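Please check our next protein.
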Amino acid sequence: MGGDGNSALGHKKFKRSRSHFTDRITADGQDGWPVESGRYRLVVSRACPWASRAVISRRLLGLERALPMAVTDPVQDDRSWRFTLDPGGRDPVLGIRYLAEAYEKREPGAPGGVSVPAIVDVPSGELVTNDYQQLTLDLATEWTALHREGAPDLYPEHLRDEIDEVMAEVYEDVNNGVYRAGFASDQAEYEKACAGVFRRLEALAERLAGQRYLVGDTITEADIRLFTTLVRFDPVYHGHFKCNLWKLTENPVLWAYARDLFQTPGFGDTVDFDHIKRHYYQVHSGINPTGIVPLGPNLSGWQSPHHREELGGRPFGDGTPPGPVALHERVGPRGLPA
């Protein structure tokens, strides 16, 4: 998610930019970027669903020490993602005020804007990749030598074709569909996108009515990608993006599924509702020019019983849950419901 043209949102046809920097960090270093503990820095916003995929994957796989993380301010200025949450307004490792500086160091004047998630090479200060579609798949498959003991297989080889198919549908209609609805510039464009969002959500609810997870009997990358949209649905997409045929809390299957994941270590403990709400409502001035952040919705229900365990399934397969969140990465008191 980038920060350019926020005032123009809703006034021209929305099209998501492709990632410009698609180098991969791999075990064999084929692109010149070998997997190496401590060499890289993952830059995220807790507000951004695309970045949240990486935050969840990193925690589930136990890559916190191998891949340190920087968290940006959820409210951008005209230079996009900034490190104003850190002392002195600079990232303590990279020494920069704006993520744009790492982009400029890699390629001055690069097209496509400044987006997260992004991985920066610490020694050179250069951006390595902002390919949000491939980044988490590589964390699951290329970084295995640095995974924690008991890490789950988030992209099992024998299920990859089915996972890819489900993820493609979720991306088109749900992950990106809410944006196409929210940033639509005319009624027909909005109605087509909004209808597509809810058609897909209803199909996913049917799929999940009889199985605990999207593919197989364990958590996979597909669940991570759906969760990051569902957890934002009622706080921002229902009102801010006008995806309001019904709320997540009004769909028994999806609401229970989302709560099941939220209460699973590695999911809810990475969510910051305060960052999420302030980013969308304060940054998207084209569709919310007042910048007013709504008080609701009531978030206490996220901790209520879901009963999804009755469907069976093993969240981490033959692995184990991740341990407690490191003190310096815990979400603030306004981020999570009590």
